[in-house]
Amino acid sequence: MKKWVTLILGLSPLLAFSQKITVSEPITLRSDIAYDLIGGLGGRTLLFRDKNTSFEVVAFDQRMQETWSKELELDPRQPKPIGVVGRKMDFVLLYQFRMRSHTLVKAHKYGPGANLLDSVAIMDLGTLFYSPNFVFERSEDRSKGLIYYIEKQDLIKAFAFDLDNMKLLWETALQLEDFNAFQNFRQVIVDNEGNMTMILEQDNYRSKRDAHLFEAYTFYGQSRELLKYDLPMNGRLTYDVKFTFDNVNGLLVGGGLYSDKNLGRADGFFYLSVDPYSPEHYRLAFSEFDEDFVASVMGKEADRAKGVSEVEVTDIVLRMDGGILLVNERNRTFERRTANMSRTFYDVNGRFAVDYYYDEVFVISIHPNGEAHWKTVLHKKQYSQDDSGMYSSYFLFRTPTSLRFLFNDEIKYENTVSEYVLKGNGDYERNSLMSTENLKLRLRFRDALQVSNSELIVPSERRNRLRLVKLEF
User: Which residues pair with 259 in a beta bridge?
Assistant: First the structure.
């Protein structure tokens, strides 16, 4: 059976096997400092552009033709976006600005045509002698937003906002004992009710391995109740970990990689789940990597040392039964000097080149009791230089029956795009989706947006020109 890709000049779709691929005309990025994919609203794909001094929404139709653009009117004194949340019927922009030397946070809700529906001042932080480094988190169902920042490395200020009803839910300031943000901070999560969970890490050192634990703080905004609970790691060190909240079962769930002695490599994986109201019954299970699995992940490097090195926990996918899929990726960065070097003097103007490697992805399916169900290795090799790895890694496309890992085969101008389709039993197949030859595309899969169970939008950035690529399965 022959496989082909048909290209009709202009904006006509590309037909690639069973996929339909449509590419927009390029947008020149002049003064833009950032852009965000809002998603699909009112039959249009919306793009938010931060031009530093102005802010714009651009709409594309089903053929990815630009149909309109609209500049958003924000408060005039130094407005700066904090987060944009695309929803089913609207989108919400949260931003900060200055007024009479005060720092304020505000939310605007817009309809599908970027018409302002509601505007709410969320918080007045008063006179600050610094610009807070706001971090925005949203809930799984996109109904709640959480904004927090860390002050003086030991004070956390946070406030939650109801995106449906456009109202402040709560605010709090947490002064924690023996807390240093640089050393201890791990993650902040907001659930679908607007409650916040913050995870800290303590004593992750070989000399203190017996004392190593996670500290969790769950703040219930409605009752103003703060629950603190410790999650000991039973003498093992944490190589990497990621947490999420299981809104169906009301559990804080974590998955990660552990080390027995050497934090330079991971010796196995672990699963953790806890009910904040009964933390004494938390579940923690460890499983060691077997030699065959390590050899499959590491290849020739498996002979050098036991365990898996240069790996990161990238995603946690919740299973319907309360278990998880733990997704990991091997990546590393090398910095090297490129200027001509003399043996007799040091050239301070010499430039460093940075090499980025993004290789194998491996997925571990874990039962609710912490036992391994299956392990699968998805092989890829990606190399780039001086691009922050923006074209590397993968996008995880989720459907009820499978997971699709979409990625660039190579990081270069003429490239092919592939996918792994991973099924619920751990079986997978690899498919070639398209070629970018003569299309002037460089796809940033890490910044893609899933619109539905059959459609996603991928930004392509090449030579200061942005195109949006719509893939339909």
Answer: 237
